[in-house]
Amino acid sequence: MMNKYTLYGITLAVGIFGPLMFPAYITQFTVLWLMVVFSLTWDIMGGQMGYNSLGNILFFGIGMYVCAIVQVGLYYNVGEYTAYSGAVKVNFTPDQYFTGLALGTVAAAIVSSLIAVIFGWIVFGLRGPYFAIGTLGVAIAAGELIGAWDYVGGGGGMSLPLFPGDSDGTAFNYVAMFTLAIATFLFLKWLYASRFSLAINAIRDDEEKAEGMGIQTKRYKTVAWSISAFFLGISGAIFGNMTGFIEPLEVAFPTVTFGIFMVLMALLGGKGTLWGPIIGAVLFHVIKEFTWTVLLGWQWIALGALIVVNVVFFQQGLVGWMQERWPEKFGIEVDTQLGVNENPSETVT
Amino acid sequence: MLSNIDLLMDSPFTNAQLLLDGLLIGALFALSAYGLALVWGVMNVKNLAQGDFVIMGGYIAVVFAQNGIHPIIALPIAAIVMFGFGWLLYITIIKRVIERDLFTSLLATFGIAIVLAQGMNLIFGPDVRVAESGFETLVLFDGNVTVSEAKLAAFLLAALLATGLITFMKKSRMGQAIRATAQDARAAKVMGIDTEKVYAFTFSLNAAICGAAGVLIAMVWVIQPFFGITHSIRSFVIVTAAGFGNLPGVIMAGLGLGAMEQFSGFVLGAEFQQATVVGVLIGVLIWRQVQQSKHRQVVE
Amino acid sequence: MLMRRAFLSTLALGVAAAGLVAAGPVSAKVEGDTITLGSAISFTGKYSSNGIHAKNGYNIAVKRINEMGGVKVGGKAYKLKIIYYDDESTPARGAQLAERLIKQDGVKFMLGPYSSGLTKAIAPVTEKHKIPMVESEGAARSLFSQGYKYLFAVLSTSEQYLASAVALAAELNKKAGKKPGDVKVAMAFENDPFSLDVRAGVMEDVKKHGLKLVIDDKLPRDISDMTATLTKVRAVKPDLLVVSGHSKGAATAARQIKELKLNIPMIAMTHCESSKIVNKYGSSVNGYLCPTQWTETLPNKDSTFGTAMDYYKTFQSTYEGYEKSVPYQSAQASAAVMVWKDAFERAQSFDVEKVRDALAATNMSTFYGNIKFSPAGNNIAKPMFLRQIQDGKYNVVTPSNVQWPLKAK
After folding, report:
1. Which of residues 156-195 of C touch A (CB under 8 A)?
2. With contacts defined as CB-CB under 8 Å, which chain C residues touch B150?
3. Which of A247, A293, C34, C331 could potentially form a cystine with A157 if both were Cys, beta carbons 3.0 to 4.6 Å apart?
4. What ipTM was assigned to the predicted interfaces of this complex?
């Protein structure tokens, strides 16, 4: 009991006081919470349901572009805005900016979830590595296709409206991202205590059996992916505004960076647990920022080595490792509803 | 796009040129795909670093060419060097990944891919490189079709290598051991085959094949440290379409992919060439899924 | 026991905060006798070769200015210094690093990154924080239609790159008796901000001269093969082929045009010098038209570096590997630093707004060319130059010395 509240207390403390104490680092903190959202949403599919997706970044990019289109499109013609010859000059009032942002974020979440439903129909027949490769392929294809779409500027990218007024928007974006991270966490906490999580864990453990027991696997898979898509879409919308300039291959659909980081963070912290992905995200973000500054030139090699070491030697992740060392502290629930569950389905209580 | 299709209709020479270019380069794709098929079929390891092995082989050829040695001589040397490299990778990393779940090998090899790509970037820099082979260009049909001799030579060498591989797999003891292990690893072990050694050999053989393919690619195209992932995806597409036991299938799929890329680049525009590869991948995966679900229905 | 888990988690999160703080150096201000400029530039990734050319340009200017007594403000002499971060040729990273330079390192005066894409990503950041940036490697015209007030560019914008090549094609073909509508233009551009901006400029020029556009291909980013496009070129027989895809686009195109034995009367390409096609392909690239922002034969001169040729020689003796040519990317980078010095000295202050206003009023002549900024921030006092590769050398093109039409080799 005590440690749960301690964890919450610490997180809130870091979340609220961190940026106040170190205002110069607000953007770094914002990215930290983005990483938390990344790993939490990946874990729904990968850790809890056993469907390792390499293409979740698809929704991040879709959210980003949908929000941008709405933000600009409400007041100007997007095609003209991104045109190279005689581009229209823009001037957004604060009112316009915030309305656009709000509507854009909502649109981002809805469209991403819809895309999850549509693509889910395509990819959920695939199993194991084919699913992973298939989702990776879809994410890459999305980047390429949007790169060929002149309406949004194609490969030349698109600039977003600047945050209005004198403030530079960093505080606003921080609060938005932190709120998103907390919302994602609370939602998943509720979700993982519900029957839904039992169903998806069953799919992870043995899909054929689960189907045999009458669980409508297709439906659960699609819903799970839509949940990931929902939160990822919003994160993309916020990140797009934070960055100010979006571009298909490197900002919106960075499959080889953010896309893979999602997986790594969850693995690092312990997939299939609630706090694992969060701890993994924090650790990863810190290590990454550190190596990028200190080991400049060698940072990617260090990262690749970390991936290999983590995957080969340490696959259960930090929380998984802690669970193995001190199982009593984790309140392992034995599930009587669906039969003995041999893999401790973790709920931190 | 329509005007491009008109162009195709008008001139048989254009068709011939695209087809020829596609087939010649497709042979190289098929080569590295075969290596992937081997590793996947025998060891169930999905090697995302496949493309980076290819690029490594390419750089060996570049270094040779820079020092005045003809890249074709680099071919056997690259194969041997990459064989050794593959062996090293096997005993340090791959060995531990085989027993685990399928996703692990993907991720582990991805980590290796990152390290390789960045390493090559540090050593060679990010500019595109070519292994100059000094070959000329043949002109056919009164200047309407050109065949680069380098591509022709690469095609012939690839064919030679493929023949050598097939013979090796059929006739040699190790080749037979590999095929036995692929069929049923436990039975093979029971029969006295040292499966560990077979695995190590297979992985190293794959690296060697990729190295050789890389030398050829450096001769006919260009290489760059970060082009590896594109080649990896191509290999995956080919293997997914053809299945792993199926060498003739891999060859057909490789040639087909090469031709498809050229035609789509012509008709749709070069920016869709990459998307075509991925599109084919998704198409193949869906097709397989449909097939498998039919199979499942039959079973039910 | 339970404490242990709480402790570990506390540790994890505490490390997070500490790590993030430790991951950056302490704020560096404009203090003492040093003015600190900041730049996120590509040391790694696909733009690294030009990123390094630009960095060398920045450094040689800082060195020379400091040697000559530094920047004189308020009766005191200040030295220049630059903080660099590697943006890895990725826009998102560049934007984050720009933010770090401004917020964590306290930089108030920025130098630009390499490439239009990265400049497009960093410009919103500097604009948001009201920090002036003098950039020298982002030519995209679209940078200057956003209404940015804190962005200044010393280079000519992208739509001018190939304008004279298209005009030349129109003129030569007209003289040879061809109607403008019969002059066929084929183009292949990489799908990135800079190349697409150049393309927009070419399309406008094609329309202006009434020429006919027959091929309009966009090349993917990791282009290793252009044969499909070039086969189309062979089928269509254009009078002018235009290719722009940074250094690897130029290298790949040059190689494959030679390999396919294409017969194109006029070929224009960007990034000829930085892709070193003369070194690599010798005589087969004779006749290629190459736009450049600067050439060492220009008559400009200034008090810091002397003439363009003086700069050329100084640069060659300072850095290795530039024996054949000094790329314009370096020259314009040096010019950017010189603009900063000039602005500080005119403003006689380090107040950011005053300096920004001084920048906007810049009107100077340098070895690189004349620099005067339009209200949008781009340099309107300097033209692009068109050169042709003749016998392995880059010669400025005039109607009398141009080699045309080219024959296949």
Report:
1. 190-193
2. 259
3. A247
4. 0.82
